[in-house]
Amino acid sequence: MMARGQSPVAKAKMRGKFITFEGLDGCGKSTQLEKLAAVLRVRGIDVVTTREPGGTIIGERIRAVLLDSRTAGLDPHAEMALMFAARAQLIAEVIGPALQDGQWVLCDRFTDSTEAYQGGGRQLGSDAVLQLHRSLCRGLWPDLTLLMDSDVSSSVSRARRRNLTTAEEMPNENRFEKESYAFFTRVRDAFLEIARREPQRVVLVDARPKLEIVHPQIVRVVFERLIAKRVRI
Ligand code: TYD
User: Fold this and answer.
1) 40 contacts: CB under 8 Å, gap ≥ 6
2) Domain range holding 170?
3) Does a structural domain hold residue 173?
4) Domain presence at residue 191
């Protein structure tokens, strides 16, 4: 029952916006995501940040299996299924409720990563990924996806540098970082193909310039695409 004095209009909250960040490993998307979240919060927008695979207790356990270099024998189809298992949990527990509540959700990777890494990198194809998305993600697509495009070689060498720095105490090269130059080239090509296919949702951002140069570009895209259209913010 509605509380006294509360109008039906006041009760119906505007659905929040769903923004995803995509790109190769080490392209700087996590940092850019946090910087965008800070800008939106200053504007009074209630923002939730999360990441994939992970973002829930169950999802983080799935993530550990997926990234652990000891699970080297993981079948590509099993890998794809685990990505979607973590995603279904994240949608049910975090993304769906937050959007319903009017919050904006900023997510580090989503189904485009599965299409790029499993569909492209592991060569399972886009159809397999999109079919699973349809049945497991209940038609949820981002309002905006920022695809941070970077060089394959810089991603691979950044991952290697990170491993060399930490290798002595704790070797942390994850299963994806062990992949070859050819693998990451297929991943990048698949990302670029998604951007060509869905220009209304996916905006390509050159991730190669310095962080301080890329950040205002991202803010501008978000304002133009999502905020300028809103009556009030
Ligand atoms: P992470 O350490 O979070 O990498 P990054 O900081 O680059 O995001 O590891 C996530 C890895 O999982 C990354 O290599 C991409 C991969 N991945 C997939 O292969 N498929 C997916 O659907 C998702 C969400 C991630």
Assistant:
1) 47, 104, 106, 222
2) 18-50+98-232
3) yes
4) yes
| CATH number of the domain where residue 223 is located | 3.40.50.300
Pocket test for ligand 1, best of 22, 25, 87, 160 (most atoms within 8 A of CB): 25
SS3 20: strand
Compute the CA torsion angle 98, 53, 156, 197 (nearest 10 deg): -60
28 falls within a domain: yes
Please give the tally of structural domains in the chain.
Answer: 1
Q: Is the CB of 179 under 6 A from ligand 1?
A: no
Listed range (55-59, 67-71, 95-99) with the worst mean pLDDT: 67-71
Question: How far does the centroid of ligand 1 lie from the alpha carbon of residue 5, in Å?
Answer: 48
pTM: 0.90
At 97, which helix (H) or strand (E)?
helix 96-100
For residue range 84-137, what is the model confidence (pLDDT) as tens digits? 999 999 999 999 999 999 999 999 999 999 999 999 999 999 999 999 999 999
145 occurs within a structural domain: yes
